[in-house]
Amino acid sequence: MPKPKNKQTDPPRYPLRYLARASLPALLDSLRAAGYRCIGPQLKEGAVVYAELDTVEQLPRGVHDQQSPGEYRTQASEDERYFAWANGPQAIKPWLFAPRESLWQVARDEHGRLRFRETSPQVTPLAVIGARACDLAALRLQDQHFLHGAHPDPYYQARRESLFIVAVQCSHTAATCFCASTGDGPRAERDFDLALSELNAGYVVETGSQRGASVLAALPLAAATAAQRDAARQQSERAARLQTRALPGRNLRDVLFANLEHPRWDEVAARCLSCGNCTSVCPTCFCHAESEQPALDGAHSEHVREWDSCFTQGHSYIHGLTIRAETRTRYRQWLTHKLGSWHEQYGRSGCVGCGRCMTWCPVGIDITEEASAICGEGT
Amino acid sequence: MRRGDVSHPYLLHEAEIVTRVQEAPDIFTLRLRFSAAARQRDYTFQPGQFNMVYLYGVGEVAISIVSDPEDDLLYDHTIRAVGRVTRGMAALRAGDYVGIRGPYGRGWPLPQAEGRDVLIVTGGLGCAPVVSVIHYILKRRERYGRLIIMQGVKHANDLLWRERYAEWARQPNVEVIIAADQGAPLWPWRIGRVTDLFDQVPFDSERTSAMMCGPEVMMRVAVQQLLARGMNEADIHLSMERNMHCAVGHCGHCQYGGKFVCKDGPVFAYPQVKELFGVRGF
Fold first, then answer.
1. What is the rounded distance in angstroms from the CA atom of residue A174 to the CA atom of residue A86?
2. Burial (Cβ within 10 Å: 0-12, 13-18, ≥19) of residue A301
3. Higher pLDDT among residues B184 and A269, named by residue
4. Does residue B232 register a pLDDT over 90?
5. B282–A291 CB contact, under 8 Å
6. Structure confidence at residue B188 (pLDDT)
7. What is the pLDDT of residues A272-305, one digit of tens each?
8. Is A152's Cβ below 8 Å from some Cβ in B?
């Protein structure tokens, strides 16, 4: 029988490999040899943050984290592991959607003529090491927002196209994690180049792309044994099982918009400081403000964008009127957008279950608790 | 990175103010032309769309385009000096330069309304987005049926373009109804709310399209009145206004529930926005 034309070819399947912990520096070397600047988690000022990574010694070895609404603490331990924590305040978002960046500049001559010039981002290809499943889910949403419309954002796009992702499968869960309920974790299943499952003495390595396979080519890898594969799978399952929080449903859009006058909005507004911490740490929040920075010489000006928050007074300002003057309507905007309007905009909820908004909230407002109070438990 | 790409979504183009018209103490019209001839030649828009207009060193604002889309030489923005940027723009004169990017958004459904009667409801100070519709229809009179223009103002002195309304009222098959909450000596129009006057202009709800802009309270009452008189929800269109920074659906300020007013609007069919229409805080 003739073979059918246009036969769909499955993406290549790569075998699971094993990298001893002592060989982890070789992974960084290989990434650098491929032209990437490495970014990885490090303990700074009491939190695991992502910064330039020169050596594996900078990784947070033995660091555990304890999180609860309004609280984040790290603890040192004798553990040899580098990734024995759930997440820190940020991961990938700031590296693609810059917290502050210049969009264009304008020069004005003595006749008042204006010459506009776009600014190009300085893009060095980045390899982010330690992205979690929730971070990758958030990345897909940011990609939809910034790239998949009629006007792709050239700054985000330039950095996104050169991003190499080394995911790390979660082995630890924080009390604030609820990615299992949003369907986004704790295992990363796609959109990584490589994914590591950290075991006591090394890493089970999944390959997600041809680029990932090339980076692995020079490394001293072994085939992952059945015991190693089982251990990796079991610790992911355990991380999922230990999650205690959950949203009351995957699609809360209709029930949220049916409850816009629920008394809980007043109740949460009495606690909320409208500080915007939740939107700063949220890996999917995309709001940004543009502002003008004229030079003192009167001949140049720069147009800058920076992260904004729907919790600010200015966010809803139109000619003399602030549409959301009170905290109640701001919190309601945030929650109905995050868990509701995202479905209309991007076909799913804007929450990936990372729990950062509750950990970093100074008064410990818990999104799962608020959503349950407004939507009821059984939706 | 597509360096120098003309589709850079945020980059402005220089335009010259060819004429400036002072319409009222705080309202002015800028007639503009792109400095680059090719850009002016290729520039097209639909009534109801808007541009981002940039004042050097101060910033950008979203402003509706009021001129006719077939005017190849110039395009007009009527601006009220009310915020930081527009107050600065009020000081501009003919021969000065601004930055322009656009057009953005979805305009009025004028092609779909061909062959039908058009009812325009507007409030406030002579709402620029619907002025473009009026001009468009009057220039193409044979393509449309009755044109009913209903305009409400707070005070008789707020009415812009008095002569224009009088001129429109003299055109065949055009009715103009203007109402001021507070009148003034020699006020030739009505006193009261414009939304109370629908009984005075019986319309055929099957063959009428409504297009409205202005304060949302006014539009809400108008929508109820129109629906009560049998108009289909889908035949009611309204222009929404929200804070805008980027105009391309990225910055998040103009979100109205799941809609981005900048790219899904600013003109919406009523069913698209009715869920939140009138709910404070969105």
1. 6
2. buried
3. A269
4. yes
5. no
6. 85
7. 999 999 999 999 999 999 999 999 999 999 999 9
8. yes
Per-residue pLDDT of A190-223, as tens digits, reads 999 999 999 999 999 999 999 999 999 989 999 9
Which chain A residue is nearest to residue B16, measuring alpha carbons? A113
DSSP A295: -
Q: Which of A185, A215, A241 marks a domain boundary?
A: A241
Residue B9 at interface with chain A, using a CB cutoff of 8 Å: yes
Q: How many domains does chain A divide into?
A: 2
Q: B180: buried, middle or exposed (CB in 10 Å: 19+, 13-18, 0-12)?
A: buried
Q: Is A338 on the interface with B (CB under 8 A)?
A: no
CB A286 within 8 A of CB A142: yes
**B5, B12, B59 ranked by CB distance to A116: nearest:** B12
- Residues B13-104, CATH architecture: Beta Barrel (2.40)
A178 and A311 share a domain? no
Is B281–A324 a contact, with Cβ atoms under 8 angstroms apart? yes
Contact B1 A120 (CB under 8 A): yes
Kindly report the length of chain B: 282
The residue to which tokens 């103490």 are assigned: B25
The topology (CATH level 3) of B117-273 is Rossmann fold (3.40.50)
Least confident of A50-64, A120-134, B119-133, B255-269: B119-133
ipTM score: 0.93
E strand segments, A199-298: 202-207, 222-223, 288-294
A200 shares its domain with A175 = yes
Cβ of residue B84 closer than 8 Å to a chain A Cβ: no
The predicted pLDDT at position B194 comes to 85
Answer whether A123 touches B (CB < 8 Å): yes
Establish if A198 belongs to a structural domain: yes
